[in-house]
Write a structure and sequence with these properties.
Blueprint (H helix, E strand, L loop, with lengths): L6 H13 L16 H4 L2 E4 L7 H14 L3 E4 L4 H7 L6 E6 L8 H14 L3 E5 L2 H5 L3 H14 L5 E5 L7 H13 L4 E3 L11 H11 L4 E5 L5 H10 L3 E4 L2 H8 L32
Parallel strand pairs: 1-2, 1-8, 2-3, 3-4, 4-5, 5-6, 6-7, 7-8
Length: about 280
Amino acid sequence: MTNRYTKDEWIAIFDQTQRHLPKRAIVYKAPDFGTAEFAKTIDHTLLKTEATEEQIDQLCDEARINDFRSVCVRLQWVEHAAHLLRGSSVVVACVIGFHEGTYSTSEKVREAIWAVQAGASELDMVLNYPELKKENFAQVFKDVASVRSVAPHPVVLKVILETSQLSRAEVIAGCKIAQAAQADFVKTSTGFNGDGATIEDVGLMKSVVGDSVKVKASGGVKTAGECVRMMEAGAERIGTSSGVWIMREANGLVKGVTHEAGADGRRDSNLPAFLTRMWTDY
């Protein structure tokens, strides 16, 4: 596996990218509430290690009923979820190297192969962000490119940056490396380490990758309003454990609750606990 560029060449690419970023944020159009396009932005997610078969069954039932894009699960649940979703338009996404990102490249490659064989159509792999922070760019590229090589298109590859652990410059570097490795998406967060998705990070990631790579916002997205704001910032996919609530809210089926975040960006404190999936905040 080639290193693609030398360290100096990578740094030059990152610097050039940063110099040419737009000065003003671009506002993108989000799909309308109540449409199939809106539902297909959602990766319905359950990643807690203590998840049970009954909970996976419910996750898949909810995804099928709401016609989400995917269910996102750990490797041990891929085959079961694929069986449950057979005949529907909902696909199975599997996390790779989750959630630390520090697994060896060979381990990530094995997980990717097993996941695809078990029925996964999409892979959400965690970037080795500690190596990125050490400026070991060649190793980070090799890690992503190796997974891409064993899971070529049409498998969708998403690269999780863990933006809460990165500086602005490191987010740019992670995006450019994922783009060079031919990832399909760059993704904000695992939801298990620090803050989740922010509008600022989503906007930055979109401005770096442009139209060649898509952006997924994940981690703490729990309302329809938050989904829209992430999509207006450039996200085309939302990873959330609150998909059912989001769809009920978006379809106008929940009454008498103020859903919009306030000026300080805080989420609605009135979100009913019984309508949220408590097994993960991913």
